[in-house]
Amino acid sequence: MAVESLNMNTKEKEQDNSLIEFQETLKEAVTILNYPVQVYEFLKKPMRFLEVSIPIRMDNGKTEIFQGYRAQHNDASGPTKGGIRFHPDVTPEEVKALAGWMSLKCGITDLPYGGAKGGIVCDPRNMSLDELERLSRGYVRAVSQLVGPTKDIPAPDMYTNSQIMAWMLDEYDHIREFDSPGFITGKPIALGGSKGRETATSKGVLYTLQMVCELKKMQLKDTRIIVQGFGNVGSYLAKYLYDLGAKVIGISDVLGGLYNEGGLDIPNLLESRDSFGIVSNRFKSSISNQELLEKECDVLIPAAISGVINKQNASRINCKFVIEAANGPTTKDALKILDEREILVVPDILANSGGVIVSYFEWCQNNQGYYWTEELVDERLKEKMTSSFLNVYNTAKRYGVNMKIAAYIEGIQKLAEASRLRGWLKY
User: Fold this and answer.
1) What is the value of pTM for the model shown?
2) Three-state secondary structure call for residue 301
3) What φ, ψ does residue 70 adopt, rounded to 5°?
């Protein structure tokens, strides 16, 4: 499973201000661009939002009703695109914010998409494979009128994987009565998936870090790195960094963190983790996620849940650079503190866009019926990540803003222009 963390309790979720922070940063960027207020009003929330109830027969014979959501933020540039997460703390506000961020990612990386996001309120840890299959198929039946290869293309997200995408694809094909591999991305290769898709987000973060090292004249192999989160993204990333000679001195999972100034044995940790990506419970010397975040390092890569760097701990973050592999790991208040401390933060909507880029490549391959080598996928991913990073970096210098605001500026411009050309906005 593509698990990042299931460690967000109800109290933490009540404090999740992701939609508010998306809107506040959006408004700031719109103001810098000198766009009229109608641009902000149009982009601050999804064009469509669907809430569904999904009745599922459980293995014990009882029927449970699951709540699901799908947000389509903006389709001016093309069909919407975005993952589906299975998580006990999914909320409408979170899904709406994630859809908005996905729109910006597509604008930053120049993809012919708008943003979308889906979610189901459930705890996959307590469900059998048969129950997960029935839930996956039930979700597709519930949203089938709004999704499709030219409408809205789902993908894996937190706690979903290629098998769940396969079940969803099969259900959609049954409903539409024809084979439609372009309906969903992140599929198994045997069903039209793309080589390199499973590792795409991690590779994108790696290419982003390499750009930072190049600009700051650092050697990656001499860099001390902490990866907070050991799910799909964090584990692959830690392995790539280890193989390239970087010193990964800290990692963490849902239960805690591991830290060693001399560097961790990443291959051994990968072999030792369980099916949920948990490994810290096998060591007596584990520390908390919070302690790990505050350890001294060159690069801190939060790759788990949102809001882990906040106003309570931002003054104690002890690194030179933050590369956001997770969605929304740094709050707006924390970013202000990090800016004042001159700690460079590469925002999530740039750093973790590798997933949607290779999802786009998968969609293209499905439409063409011609499939690429992994080397070609990686080459084109690196090209996209590099050019997108340089555009955002130069925009930050041109406007005198941090890279997060610059990323919003880059993303908003494409959305606004496409909406204006369609006649939806007049300015």
Assistant:
1) 0.92
2) strand
3) -145, 120
Dump pLDDT digits (tens) for 388-398: 999 999 999 99
Token look-up 């949102």 returns 306
Encoded amino acid at 206, one letter: L
DSSP 384: H
CA distances from 17 to 12, 21, 92, 359 (A): 10, 6, 12, 28
Residues 38-58 have a mean pLDDT of 97
* Closest alpha carbon to 412 in 117, 106, 111, 104: 104
CA separation, residue 289 to residues 12, 182, 209, 332, 343 (Å) = 15, 39, 22, 20, 20
- Structural tokens at position 286: 């584990």
Asked if 78 and 45 touch (Cβ cutoff 8 Å), the reply is no
Sign of CA dihedral 93, 94, 97, 99: negative
| Residue among 81, 96, 105, 117 flagged as catalytic | 117
Q: Tokens standing for 224?
A: 């001390």
Known catalytic membership, residue 217: no
- In degrees, rounded to 5, the angle at the alpha carbon of residue 220 between the alpha carbons of residues 195 and 397 is 90
Strand partners of residue 301: 227
Q: How far apart are CA 40 and CA 26, in angstroms?
A: 7
